[in-house]
Design brief:
Blueprint lengths: L4 H11 L4 E6 L7 H7 L11 H5 L10 E8 L2 E3 L10 E2 L8 H20 L3 E4 L7 H7 L3 E3 L5 E3 L6 E8 L18 H5 L5 E2 L2 E2 L5 H4 L8 H6 L3 E3 L3 H4 L9 E3 L2 H4 L3 H6 L2 H8 L9 H11 L5 H11 L5 H13 L3 H14 L3 H16 L3
Parallel strand pairs: 3-12, 4-11
Antiparallel strand pairs: 1-2, 2-8, 5-8, 6-7, 9-10
The structure holds iron/sulfur cluster (2 copies).
Length: 367
């Protein structure tokens, strides 16, 4: 008996570690326009800036009739022993191969089958695509929005990558999820900054967001970053709906790199080490800035030495953050001397002002 296209799509998902798959119409997502306009400033640089393109699938593919949405679980266990090195933490979804590449391989595989079998036109996207992944996933019945602000996929839970294929095929649509979080509050309890609360989700308080923006962080933000070098997945890891972990992370340096190594890396070394991972696209300076923030969880002589060394960085974001971190660690004789020295050699007037302010504060506090 000839298999229907929808059955074939489900079969492909089952055979290729796609935890959830659903189909929806390619009509405009007009209902999310107001929400997208409201968050446009905060999410600038992260998403397509033309709101019409984020709403209209047909601006990405003329003649689009359906969208196939997919979720892939990235839940993994860590099975290494923590040593006494000064290390930061890369979120579970970002350590290792860039998920955009992985997801695109899976979507392209399905698109190729649809092209060959049905002559379909298909365009594949993940994360960086023009449409709002969450809106697509919801309409296609992949899941619902949980209290942590993530799509909670029926099978994959909160720890999933999302992607979609826009196609000109007329396909049977999936029904929307009726699931809810119920009385569970695991993610609210796990969030270290209070970004999730009963009142909703506050992007500007979220560590994952802070580790990805490019500007210098305020002292308050620096203190909230914790050990997170890129992303924070505490609220996703805490979700009771996650699919059980199938893989384990064995390499401690991949999930928890040494902070000193990160800070001392040249741009070329950074590219070689992280170029094919999700953190590669954020660039070395942002990850080094976050690594400096993580030193605050260690403090002590070793941490101060690393921060003082970073004052010699060629990058001004790194130098400024190093100075802030030294200030937040209380300076001490070594920190203060390093700052006074750095101030004498600094050429950037903005950074000179930052140094002077911190030096004054430390002197006032008797460093
Ligand atoms: S990613 Fe981290 S900081 Fe952001 S909401 Fe989740 S637990 Fe809170
Ligand atoms: S942890 Fe609980 S409340 Fe939070 S998203 Fe998952 S199910 Fe919902």
């Amino acid at each position: 008996m000839k298999m229907k296209a929808e059955q074939l799509i489900k079969k492909y998902a089952g055979e290729n570690s796609i935890s959830d798959i659903g189909i929806c119409s390619a009509e405009d997502f007009e209902g999310i326009r107001a929400e997208l306009e409201k968050s446009a400033d905060i999410l600038k640089g992260f998403v397509e800036k033309d709101i019409q393109k984020r709403i209209s699938p047909r601006m990405s593919m003329e003649g689009a009739k359906s969208i196939i949405a997919a979720a892939v679980s990235y839940n993994r266990d860590c099975c290494f022993e923590i040593d006494d090195e000064i290390r930061g933490y890369i979120s579970m979804g970002a350590a290792g191969e860039d998920y955009h590449l992985y997801m695109m391989r899976l979507l392209n595989g399905l698109a190729e089958i649809l092209r060959q079998k049905y002559g379909a036109e298909c365009r594949c996207f993940t994360d960086t695509g023009p449409l709002c992944d969450r809106a697509v996933a919801l309409r296609a019945g992949i899941g619902y929005i949980g209290k942590n602000g993530c799509v909670i996929a029926k099978n994959g839970g909160a720890a999933v990558f999302l992607g979609y294929i826009i196609t000109d095929m007329e396909l049977e649509k999936s029904s929307k999820s009726k699931d809810t979080c119920g009385s569970c509050k695991n993610c609210l309890k796990s969030c270290p900054t209070g970004a999730i609360s009963d009142k909703g989700f506050k992007t500007e308080k979220c560590i994952s967001f802070l580790t990805q923006i490019k500007r210098p962080l305020t002292d308050r933000e620096i203190l909230s970053i914790g050990l997170n070098l890129y992303g924070c997945d505490k609220c996703q890891r805490a979700c009771m709906k996650n699919m059980p972990a199938e893989n384990e992370v064995e390499d401690i340096d991949a999930a928890m790199p040494k902070i000193k190594d990160i800070i001392e890396m040249s741009n070329r070394e950074f590219k070689e080490t992280y170029g094919k991972t999700a953190i590669g696209w954020r660039g070395a300076a942002v990850i080094k800035r976050n690594a400096l923030c993580a030193l605050l969880r260690y403090r002590g002589e070793k941490a101060m030495e690393i921060a003082c060394g970073a004052l010699k960085s060629e990058n001004k974001l790194v130098r400024q953050t190093a100075a802030q971190v030294i200030g937040l660690m209380g300076g001490g004789k070594n920190g203060l001397d390093a700052l006074i020295n750095a101030e004498k050699n600094e050429k950037d007037t903005d950074i000179i002002l930052v140094y002077r302010d911190i030096i004054e504060r430390l002197k006032g506090a008797g460093s």
